[in-house]
Design brief:
The structure is a single chain. The protein is of the alpha/beta class. The protein has a single domain, classed as SGNH hydrolase (Rossmann fold), CATH 3.40.50. Helices cover 44% and strands 11% of the residues. The protein has eight helices and five strands; from the N terminus they run E-H-H-E-H-E-H-H-E-H-E-H-H. It is globular. The termini are close together. The N terminus is likely disordered.
Amino acid sequence: MSVDVPQHLLAGQRIVFIGDSITDAGRRDRVAPHGDGYVSLVRALVTARHPGLRLRWTNHGVSGDTVRDLADRWERDAVAARPDWLSVMIGINDVWRAFAGRPDEAVPIDEYEQTLRRLLRRAVDATGCRLILADPYLIEPDLTDPQRAESDRYGDVVGALAKEFDAVHVRTQEAFDRALAVSSPEDWADDRIHPNLPGHAIIADAYLAALGITDEIH
């Protein structure tokens, strides 16, 4: 039987995830090496549905990171990893710290966009990788909430960069918004940011949809 390959995934390719605590999800200690969040779920489901691809998976999420922190470790954790696919989800801390009494650690949107664009260009030029860009999000249905409104602006930056780099765009905020139409933020996270397992499943499902992963085993 031929393999129905989604989004041009090829056998043996390396997929590297990089980001903040949502990506980290304990991968550096209690649940090494993939964590117990969306990365692990995406890995498990893609492997189960396309076992013949034998993809290689690397999680380089670090809790607390902003795009500035990614810049400090980009050569080691993104470029040197030689990804065929590089998945980036960053921006939650860049926004949140402005609302958490730590404005000096928040990243203004212009700096966020310029830094992220530079990092993505470096990775693509150095490795030839394809990009997967996931929106930052806030699990908050009120669009007028100041933190939600600011998060949406950063998400718009990611969407524009996804078009610029012809990247796979994972619309995580839209995925949570669909769930919030019939549920409450507390169903998915205690703090509107760090998901429980069902919340991570929403993110993973958004990844599968963006990648065109089928429901069938091939």
